[in-house]
Design goal:
This protein is α/β, with parallel strands linked by helices and 225 residues long. It contains ten helices and five strands, in the order βαββαβαβααααααα. Strands 2-1-3-4-5 form a five-stranded parallel β-sheet, sandwiched between helices. α2 links the parallel β3 and β4.
Length: 225
């Protein structure tokens, strides 16, 4: 069992927080930020859960459980969440900026949400305060998505190939071939500024952080000839 315990013990009253995340960088960052908050007494973090053993409340009652995992449907994540609900522990879920499956996120037992990339000490402090007061912290992006669904305005998800314009698909082929912006501009007879704009649109529509990842997605989706 992979278990990491990081306890920040101080002589003060405050929340006991348990963090479950499958990413070491996220785990260390959350541990440091939470441990620096005046409202938090102890922070315990762990990576994975054995089906027959859920490391919960080992060192006393937990006030808040923070979950930052890619797979909210995972058995281990659900075991911890179910245990938290039974113990009366509040749950804060950190989500990606692009919510691929709205049903999974909204059906998961939780008391609030934060976007993982926007987490700061102040954001965490505000979210913990809201949750313990019975409020539901929720990013505007998620709130808007839920309102759209209630109103019946949520558009059906389009295939990746339909999101790209013909010009963007042409650019994507050249990007995947390893051409620079300057080379693509010459090939397409447009300015480098125009190429930058096309590449930025491609990365945004494919939800990719760089050109290499965009090329991989293009191959997976059959966008490349």
């Amino acid at each position: 069992m992979d278990l990491l315990v990081d306890l920040h013990k101080q002589d003060r009253d405050g929340y006991r927080v348990l963090v479950l995340t499958d990413n070491e960088l996220t785990r260390r960052g959350l541990s440091d930020m939470l441990g620096s908050l005046a409202e938090v007494t102890d922070v315990e973090t762990f990576v994975s859960v054995h089906p027959d053993y859920v490391p919960f409340c080992e060192h006393g009652p937990v006030d808040i459980l923070v979950i930052a995992c890619h797979d909210l449907k995972g058995r281990g994540v659900n075991l911890v969440a179910d245990t938290a609900v039974r113990c009366g522990t509040k749950i804060l879920v950190l989500i990606e900026r692009k919510v691929d499956c709205l049903d999974t996120v909204t059906e998961f037992p939780s008391n609030g949400f934060l976007i993982k990339d926007d987490v700061t000490e102040d954001a965490l402090a505000a979210a913990l305060s809201q949750i313990t007061c019975g409020e539901v912290p929720m990013p505007a992006m998620l709130a808007n998505r839920l309102l759209e669904r209630v109103r019946g305005e949520t558009p059906p998800e389009r295939p990746v190939s339909q999101k790209l314009t013909p010009r963007e698909r042409e650019t994507l082929v050249l990007v995947a071939a390893g051409l620079s912006n300057k080379q693509i501009a010459r090939r397409m007879l447009i300015s480098q500024h125009g190429v930058k704009r096309l590449v930025a649109n491609i990365l945004s529509k494919l939800n990719c952080s760089n050109r290499t990842l965009a090329a991989a997605v293009a191959i997976k989706e059959g966008l490349l000839p």
